[in-house]
Amino acid sequence: MRKTVLLVLLSALYLQAQTGDAQQATLQRILERLEAVEKQNEEMMQEIHSLRAELAQAHAAAPAAATPESERLDVAENRIEEQAQTKVEASQRMPLKFTGMALFNTFLNNKAANAPNDYSTLLTGPDRSGATLGQSQLGISFSGPDLPGGGRIWGDLDMDFLDGPDGENYTLNLRRGIVNFDWDSRSISVGQDRPLISARQPDSLAEVAIPALASEGNFWLWQPQVRYVERFRLGASSGIEVAGSLIETDEQSGYVPSYLVHTLDPSRPAIEGRANFWHSFSDNVRFDFAPGFHESTTHVNGYSVPSRIATLDWGVSPNKWVHLTGLFFGGHNMSELGGFVDGFTVLPYQTPIAVHGVGGWSQLAFTVTPRLTLNTFCGFTAPRESDLAAGSSAHSGSCAANAIYRIAPNVLVAAEILQERLGYVAQPHTIQNHYDLAIGYLF
Q: Has residue 175 got a pLDDT over 60?
């Protein structure tokens, strides 16, 4: 552009110095020169635009060009090898995931002078002291195909290695195994699980294979059952979950006189129901209250002994640091689910009678930091003494406190102190203390 302007000024000065035909000839040459210069400028601008477009394409293609074809092939092969190492499939092409925990417990049991030599109620072993890996767990989870109506199939299988309360013999034992057919508003599950009316349990790494408070108010037995759940939303932050189940009881889990064992039906069908009312104020503030019931009949010595249980469990989180959970129940003949010792009593020359009573447990948990949680829990059972025979357990209770610290994303360390108090009809009461240190590796 500057070259064109300079050429015009020089031409004007040159024309002033000429006249007539000379000026006309000169003007014609100047116009021709200007046209040539303008044409060159247009060609240069076109070349500049073309170069800019090519440069932009080169920048866009640079990341791809920076990785040669051979390198891309190597990356793809490495990814395929990683997937081959981590992916597990069932014979029906359903993906499987292995989960679990390698749990090491070392413990010490302290007994009072009037306590019996049997420590079997102290869950990590009847010995005075020892260590065990028997509470380690192994789990398998699977996810199946989609169901009509937007549902899906999934399932879990959980096992431990504890064979008996001493923790010395390691045998793989089935705990929980379910297949769940799940939709947004309803679910159907079949398999072996905890009782429907006992949806919560205390947090402990000292008592895992047999859950904490298993003899003091915590219904815990894993029994075959079919369960149906229907979910109702009451606005954006409230709802009700109504559930019912048909469950097989374990009639031998409570105390049965030896001379009546052969007359006892070892398992019986039962029905259970539970309705969980919940409301969430925020992500960290939520309240759950769930009434429930259990109904079955024990057959022993040619008689039928009804079992009726009414329950209420709860979960309260007033903030992100404090969590209160628990279960309270009352009724009669309540031993077939675990958590209660005597279900019925056979008095001399009389028919069996159901043992009435109440029981339950509660836990208060403090989330001190994202890594540290402090838990304290207590449980009890209180049968009606007039329903009991001499020597029967009149009442029992336990209280415990533990600290669980996550030293790494998958490594837990816990220390727990527990005291168990047992009362007997016409016999001295006993007190036993249990101390446990646990290290768990999650995988």
A: yes
Burial 217-228 (b: 16+ CB within 10 A, else e): bbbbbbbebebe
Tell me how far apart the alpha carbons of residues 336 and 340 are, in angstroms, rounded to a whole number.
8
3-state SS, residue 198: coil
153 compared with 13, residue with greater pLDDT: 153
Distance of CA 430 to the CA centre of its chain: 37
Nearest CA-CA partner of 129 in 106, 163, 162, 103: 106
Q: Which residues of 411-426 are buried (b: 16+ CB within 10 A; e: fewer)?
A: ebebebebebbbbbee
CB 354 within 8 A of CB 387: yes
Which residue type is seen at 47? E
Structure tokens at 65: 């060009």
Under the banding of pLDDT at 50, 70 and 90, the label for residue 94 is low
- How many residues comprise the chain? 443
The C-alpha atoms of residue 285 and residue 311 are separated, in whole angstroms, by 24
CB atoms within 10 A of CB 175: 19
Whole-number average pLDDT of the chain: 81
- The reported pTM is 0.74
Rounded to a whole number of angstroms, the CA Rg of the chain reads 39
* DSSP strands (E only) in 11-119: 88-89, 95-111
- State mean pLDDT over 330-343: 90
Alpha carbon of residue 175 to chain centroid? 16
3-state SS assignment for residue 40: helix
